[in-house]
Amino acid sequence: DPPDDLRGALPFPAIAGKALELVQRVHARAKLRGGIPGVPTGIKSLDDALGGLQRGLHLLGASPGAGKTALALNIARHAAAVHQLPVVYASFDEVPERLALKVLAQAGKVSASDMGSGRTDPAKVAALIDQHAAAHRTLSFVVGGAKLTAPDLMDQLQDRMKAHAQDIGLIVVDYLQPWASAIASTAERPMEIRAAVGGTALALRDIANQMEAAVLLVSALNRTGQEKERPSMTSFRESSDLEYGADSIMALAADPEVTVGSNKRAVGLHILKNRFGPNDKHIGLVLDGPTQVMAERGA
Fold first, then answer.
1. Which residues pair with residue 252 across a beta bridge?
2. Read out DSSP for 170-206?
3. 213, exposed or middle or buried, with CB in 10 Å at 0-12, 13-18, 19+?
4. Residues of the chain whose pLDDT is less than 50?
5. What does residue 283 show for φ and ψ, rounded to 5 degrees?
6. What angle do CA 46, 203, 152 make, to 5 degrees?
7. In the chain, is it the N or the C terminus that has fewer CB atoms within a 10 Å radius of its CB?
8. pTM (whole model) above 0.85
9. CB atoms < 10 A from the CB of 157, how many?
């Protein structure tokens, strides 16, 4: 028998067998989804770079007004409506009803602000719901709060993966800092926000690794990430904790020097860390203000 301190060590043949199982799973998924082994995002250059959102923790940072929720919802909606993958979207920033209106706006290419401010005939909204609700049946929303835990999100997604007979799913957290702040403020013992951020991110990473899930974690950027220079990993708040746990790190920032037309805004998605492929990649995107649709420039 091996010594007690080595009982947990795995011999190479056992690991190699598990590695083959992994290759078989991702190969089968890639055949189903146009060569994308993870959760497709709908942004071709991003899917090419990451292989979709593969099992693990994916960090998306954004400066204010860059469109973090718009991008997260576009990704969630694409995974659900196009590929029928289970998506659990936990929001700490907006109520589910307003997020549902944004989803309808993206799907129907109508103005989200008009619907939310009473300028749209309710009959038209009802028609949009009738048209798009079935396609989005695998998309669910969770109201964020201090009592919400990472295992809660895992249970929610697992239930939906079983219900929809899918072997991979997506959790979206929008966004990290309010959740960590709520956890820190209600902890039995004093807790710094940095510790809450790091603990929450690592808990989500562990969940993603325990099950076949991708976690898209939206985070705020420091003020240095809001300036004209390109964002870096140091632009993330509590960056060292987040850098360690993430399998990919992306930063979304305005591209003020690019002109894209009326009611549209140019933004850039910078891939800063990527365990699945190339780093240091910039993807040009366009955010349509009224509909909140975000698409790749030139696509």
1. 62, 269
2. EEEEE-HHHHHHHHHHH-SS---HHHHHHHHHHHHHH
3. buried
4. 1, 225-227
5. -120, 120
6. 95
7. N
8. yes
9. 27
